[in-house]
Specification:
single chain, six-stranded parallel beta sheet, binds ligand BJW, binds zinc ion
């Protein structure tokens, strides 16, 4: 068994003087909740090609296929529970101003109790009509119903950001600001290859902020980070919280 890396003395010292912390998260933080990541050995895109599912043209060409894929993932996400990673981030709100900037669409940060969350790639439980933009958020569409239509006749699509689509402007600019103004940014469970979201940690790097990566594997960000913890986010974050609590008592 590989030991979970313990937090460094420098990190604990940084935490003791920090006020604002940003968590930039990706699919890896939800892996311990049983939600597959996108890429890598167990990634969902080993089975489904992104260009066939995660873009608007594919949806318009085969709405039923894309809708069913999202319905399947919605069921999965609803059954999943927040893990230690989500819960530690939520608990840290007792000590810091915590902003969560997430690429995830799974609602697990919210269900864990995090208050300030910027969802850069949308939310799988929200939907809108492609023609009139009427919203269908948190509607439980019947399982049998594939590719539902709006009352205007337009197709209803999930409110997630597909390839080639713009990220929500306010969420993105708020995230950039939070990264520039924080004391520490943790990049957790993301391959850091999907842009423009992947720029967010670099806002912190360029502003001279302390950047910590938590990921079992090396990523595009690793070399730019001040510290890297190679391990599962639930385990590493739990260690960091426990050591921080010991240091304030
Ligand atoms: C663990 C772990 C454990 C495992 N603990 N860790 C340069 C600038 C700007 C844009 C581009 C650019 N170059 C290319 C682009 C275009 C494109 C892009 O970035 N492509 C790249 C793939 C090259 N970007 C876009 O199209 C974006 N829009 C855009 O650019 O608009 C401007 C524009 C408009 C019009 C024309 C042209 C440009 C939109 C991107 C939208 C991404 N959407 C998705 C799907 C969301 C909906 C859904 O869920 O179905 O978002 S793609 C997918 O990737 C999803 C994720 O949020 C995103 C990031 O993935 P993430 O979270 O990093 O997951 P993985 O699987 O990659 O990594 C998991 C990590 O966890 C791994 O590192 C593991 O090691 C780790 N891990 N277990 C901790 N227990
Ligand atoms: Zn409509």
């Amino acid at each position: 068994m590989i030991a979970v890396p313990a937090p460094s003395k420098i990190l604990i010292k940084k935490l003791l003087s920090a006020k604002k912390i940003v968590f930039f998260t990706g699919a890896g933080i939800s892996a311990e909740s049983g939600i597959p990541t996108f890429r890598g050995e167990d990634g969902i895109w080993n089975k489904f090609k992104p260009e066939e599912l995660a873009n608007f043209n594919s949806f318009m060409k085969n709405p039923q296929l894309v809708w069913e894929w999202y319905q399947f993932r919605r069921e999965h996400v609803k059954k999943a529970m927040p893990n230690n990673g989500h819960l530690v981030i939520s608990e840290l709100q007792n000590y810091f101003e915590v902003v969560v900037v997430t690429q995830n669409v799974d609602n697990l940060h919210r269900r864990a109790g995090s208050k300030i969350i910027y969802e850069l790639h949308g939310n799988i439980e929200k939907n809108f009509c492609v023609d009139c933009s009427k919203r269908y958020d948190f509607v439980d569409f019947p399982k049998s119903e594939s590719s539902p239509k709006c009352e205007c006749g337009g197709l209803i699509r999930p409110d997630v950001v597909w390839f080639g689509e713009m990220l929500p402007a306010t969420e993105f600019s708020n995230s950039e600001k939070a990264a520039r103004e924080c004391d520490i940014l943790f990049s957790v469970g993301t391959s850091s290859i999907v842009f423009p979201a992947a720029y967010i940690p670099y806002e912190a790097v360029d502003s001279g902020k302390y950047v910590v990566e938590i990921n079992p594997d090396e990523t595009e960000l690793s070399r730019a980070a001040n510290e890297v913890y190679r391990g599962k986010s639930g385990e590493v974050l739990k260690n960091i919280l426990d050591e921080f609590k010991r240091s304030i008592n």
